[in-house]
């Protein structure tokens, strides 16, 4: 194999390139990225950067020595021709023997004049706006990103209103039982949290909400999810669209007939696949760990090693309102959730998630180290509710409806 192209210069693209070299690829390696910046760390954007504790110039990821890659930055890919085995970047056509699709996802855009937080430039713009001392910040969406932005505003001493379509913050990921606890934490920190509410209009600094109220907000941040970068694949024969690029657990990209496309792989936020450990439909996993795992598996398989699949449990974390929140497995699949350690009334607790009598996920607040044991239960498809028997397990646990 003479040339491998990595489409995407983020964490996923960088790790894929490094893994290709580690797996013995000695040919030409080209990394094409839409942003002008070298790969950088994204999680701090909505936390340390907005709060002013870290500048975006300190986020650059280290690059392995001897990578020997060509970098095309600020050059988004614009098309793919599988017949000629070429990627298009503007007027340029780049031939390839192997391809890793790692173009990631972008923030779902809001109305003109609003901010999003997905890229380094997004964070810089929003940081400048917050540093100007707005009278009120309006955050639209109380998922993980929206909640982290609100937490950063609180750290800065800025009044913040959060509107959320759902019943509780992060409820779609963690369920409304846990979401209600996290929502109470937000309100205790002074957040004006309004659930079952959306933004319906914006006129200058005047926002209209779905409940009919109007409020003044100098800065509006929209955090309503992401959109995978797949438009460049339209008409290519790749099975791709608004839900991502379809691939299997070995990261092999599928065509529109569901067949594997030789030597074309996908990894990271753009990849949509069925995790082999769960009875669940194909989905995207926008987590740091998944980006690394898929990048390494894609590179290994592209180099012709014995076929590997991604089997690591999904895991994600968030730091907000003085809490560390960590989850493993797929809590959003659950139809039941149980408090297994600690107490909702206290700062520290653990909850387990089940579906159809099987343990599928767990989350911990300020107790990240205990999740290793829960990971084993999820991997083993242990019965739900699980038998924990920890010293801080509640004497009487109640089971409530989960996210599903």
TrEMBL record:
Family annotation (InterPro entries): FAD-oxidoreductase/Apoptosis (IPR050446), FAD/NAD-bd_sf (IPR036188), FAD/NAD-binding_dom (IPR023753), FAD/NAD-linked_Rdtase_dimer_sf (IPR016156), Reductase_C (IPR028202)
Pfam families reported in the protein's UniProt record: Pyr_redox_2, Reductase_C
Record's keyword terms, sorted: FAD, Flavoprotein, Oxidoreductase
Cofactors: FAD
Keyword Flavoprotein belongs to the record: yes
Domain Reductase C-terminal: 316-396
GO MF terms, alphabetically ordered: oxidoreductase activity, acting on NAD(P)H
A GO term from the CC aspect: cytoplasm
Domain FAD/NAD(P)-binding, chain residue ranges per copy: 3-295
Name of the protein in its database record: Ferredoxin reductase
Organism annotation: Amycolatopsis bartoniae
């Amino acid at each position: 194999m003479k040339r491998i192209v990595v489409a995407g210069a983020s964490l996923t693209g960088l790790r894929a390139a490094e893994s290709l070299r580690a797996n013995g690829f000695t040919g030409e390696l080209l990394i094409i990225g839409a942003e002008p910046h070298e790969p950088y760390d994204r999680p701090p954007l909505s936390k340390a950067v907005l709060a002013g504790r870290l500048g975006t110039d300190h986020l650059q990821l280290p690059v392995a020595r001897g990578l020997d890659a060509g970098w095309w930055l600020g050059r988004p890919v614009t098309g793919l021709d599988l017949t000629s085995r070429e990627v298009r970047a503007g007027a340029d056509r780049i031939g390839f023997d192997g391809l890793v699709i790692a173009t990631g996802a972008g923030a779902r855009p809001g109305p003109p004049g609003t901010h999003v937080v997905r890229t380094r430039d997004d964070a810089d713009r929003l940081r400048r706006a917050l540093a100007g001392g707005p009278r009120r910040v309006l955050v639209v969406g109380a998922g993980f990103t929206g909640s982290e932005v609100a937490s950063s505003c609180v750290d800065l001493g800025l009044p913040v209103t959060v509107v959320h379509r759902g019943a509780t913050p992060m409820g779609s990921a963690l369920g409304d039982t846990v979401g209600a606890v996290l929502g109470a934490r937000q309100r205790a920190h002074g957040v004006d949290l309004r659930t079952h509410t959306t933004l319906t209009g914006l006129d200058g600094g005047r926002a209209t909400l779905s409940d009919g109220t109007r409020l003044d907000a100098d800065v509006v941040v929209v955090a309503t999810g992401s959109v995978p970068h797949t438009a460049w694949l339209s008409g290519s024969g790749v099975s791709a669209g608004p839900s991502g690029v379809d691939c299997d657990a070995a990261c092999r990209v599928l065509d529109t007939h569901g067949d594997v496309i030789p030597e074309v792989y996908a990894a990271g936020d753009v990849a949509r696949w069925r995790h082999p450990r769960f009875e669940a439909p194909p989905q995207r996993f926008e987590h740091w760990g998944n980006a690394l795992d898929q990048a390494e598996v894609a590179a290994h398989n592209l180099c012709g090693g014995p076929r590997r699949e991604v089997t690591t449990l999904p895991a994600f974390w968030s730091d907000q309102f003085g809490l560390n929140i960590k989850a493993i497995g797929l809590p959003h699949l659950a139809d039941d959730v149980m408090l297994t350690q600690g107490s909702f009334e206290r700062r520290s607790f653990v909850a387990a998630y089940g579906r159809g009598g099987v343990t599928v996920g767990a989350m911990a607040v300020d107790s990240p180290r205990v999740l290793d044991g829960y990971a084993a239960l999820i991997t083993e498809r242990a019965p739900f509710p699980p038998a924990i028997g920890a010293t801080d397990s509640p004497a009487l646990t109640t089971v409530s409806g989960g996210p599903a």
